[in-house]
What we know:
The chain is mostly helical and 412 residues long. The protein contains 18 helices and no strands. The chain has helices spanning 6-29, 31-40, 46-76, 79-96, 105-128, 130-133, 139-166, 170-191, 201-221, 223-252, 258-278, 280-285, 288-308, 312-338, 346-359, 363-375, 379-384, 386-397.
Amino acid sequence: MPIANKKQIIxxxxxxxxxxxxxxxxxxxxxxVYYANHxxxxxxxxxxxxxxxxxxxxxxxxxxxxxxxxGIADFFGMRKRFLFSFTLLCISSVAMLSFLQKGMVIEGFVxxxxxxxxxxxxxxxxxxxxxxxxxxxxQGRVSSWGYAVGYAGSILSLMFAMPLVNRGLLNETxxxxxxxxxxxxxxxxxxxxxxxxxxxxxxxxxAGMKYTWNTLKKIWKDRESRxxxxxxxxxxxxVSTVIVFSSLFAATTLGFKPEELILLYIxxxxxxxIGAFVMARxxxxxxxxxxxxxxxxxxxxVCVFAFFVTEKIHFWFIASVAGIGLGTVxxxxxxxxxxxxxxxxxxEYFGVYSMVGKSSSVIGPFLFGYISATxxxxxxxxxxxxxxxLIGLIIVSFIRAGTPNIKKQSRV
Length: 412
């Protein structure tokens, strides 16, 4: 069976490459340290506080607005236009980071919030193209390919950034990310399916909000989709917590130096890429449910072993295993959720999916910080994250969905 339009598949995956340059350099590794330590000043932890505020505000904004925007996009037929607008917002905000100077705390805060909104908001509409560009039998694999190409984007962008950072050319680093994001996004806007306008925008706003409310009610009434989203909320919270605090754990508890943290992040992205590619076919042949369950067992083991680790080399191994689980659980979860979506409601449903995903970055990080501060150790805090994976695992095991898209004996 043909996979579908190959140009659409390639351009869709390449967009994941594009936005991963932002995720790696701006959101995860280089800019957070620059903003907290240089722009704000982090001697008393105030830089961490401002960075946390920026990330939280942007995530809350996306969580609250993405279902409504998804409903509007489906009703009005403007997914591609929304994707372009949010992408442009992110790219331009990243470029403007090059104007920041020491002490420009508020300006940096505003730009980071806008950039994060642009990045995360665009993902709602990016995800919604998957059911349209890939036939059902290939959706699990295409989802995995997208994540794998994205991890490659993270690795290459950090490799491009390292010589600039070593030479102190940080403003040029932000411009590099902005330019690479823009360049690699172009094929998506050329080849992805065009918008099909179905009504007036004024009508779409009110109808889209009603549409979204009806979607929430439909999902809540459907027992299996409800169980999936509750499970996803739990284990995605665990994944988010590990991602947010892994570098802090490595630096504070194990004494990793900044350059070691960058190399560690590259290693995690590389193993995540491998995991996404290796598990691409199993998502379709075994079914996303089985792959998610395997991933959650893996994540639980990672947290338990991290509790006992004392040597850097051991943490390198644990982080690499976590990377394999990261690529696997993300791709399988997206393919899992697709099975609950009625045709023609992709943006609307992925708006809810995005809302749940962004909402998952609240409880876990708060619990980690509270336990770490109370017990004056990060070890029991990292162990507590296991609870999120175990709860998610139990709920997923009772979901009557996530079956294979194609039979094992089928030829591809």
